[in-house]
Amino acid sequence: SWTMPNYIDDAVARIRAEVGDEEVILGLSGGVDSSVAAALIHRAIGDQLTCVFVDHGLLRLNEGQMVMDMFAKNLGVKVVHVDASADFMGQLAGETDPEKKRKIIGAEFVEVFQREAKKLTNARWLAQGTIYPDVIESAGAKTKKAHTIKSHHNVGGLPETLNLKLLEPLRELFKDEVRELGVALGLPHDMVYRHPFPGPGLGVRILGEVRKDFADLLRRADAIFIEELRNTRDEDGLSWYDKTSQAFAVFLPVKSVGVMGDGRTYDYVVALRAVVTSDFMTAHWAELPYSLLGKVSNRIINEVRGINRVVYDVSGKPPATIEWE
Ligand code: XMP
Question: Which UniProt keywords apply (predicted)?
Fold first, then answer.
């Protein structure tokens, strides 16, 4: 019968048989899939695995540190931490078009990753956290030429240009199975059950031109929102973070007038977005309690100098999308 410990033993044996004594590189994003793949492959082959974590400067507050703590410190995984935020910001300067921003971020990501991967001259394998729905989706995209509203971050061309064999140990698993596997491998529950985060990160949550000062403001506002969602509990012990499928703050590069103490402020606006959905193709805006929204708004305006107005997005998908870009 199927049990998680048996599954892990089998998966470990398969990875060892496939890889032998060769070395493996994995692009760690901090997301669930690449994290679980890293933990599983590390369980199988230990130091034959090197992870490359590219920080594009568009991650959430303290995310880079969290990834390094979890993998390098706690699990003892070899992780190369590449701080490429200046490169990404440079490439994005002046660009306001959402699709062009995605292309820039995707291309720069491939470039930085390749540069790092080429330094690991012993590597023969590229590991990816591809899961079963990704396999289905890309098969569909090839035959149907799917109509894409937003181009997704895609690192599909990497193995060929790097001349590496592809290792995808999660290819047969659904998302909930990947999460169970992650917990069984010792990853923290909160990490494994996180909301999805887009590949281009805050790059598509800062409307228009991406700037470091905007990203810094947004990170702090977003962290307050998520912290307050996590700090709630209903009768069943569930938080509003658990009850929403995705929640985040969006930076609007628009200034409005406010008043603080005796003075007038003229600062930026943050929009809060929280949705409930089962497939992310359609979504309802989450009916968060007014008291919670009020608390988040007060905290953001009081604690994040530079933001003086907070609004809540009450648009469904369709016609709106979940992200604002
Ligand atoms: P939308 O905004 O299209 O989002 O309703 C649906 C889901 O897809 C995520 N999303 C992305 N994920 N790269 C990603 O990896 C992207 O460019 C991208 N754009 C949207 C979004 O966060 C939501 O979960």
Answer: ATP-binding, Glutamine amidotransferase, GMP biosynthesis, Ligase, Nucleotide-binding, Purine biosynthesis
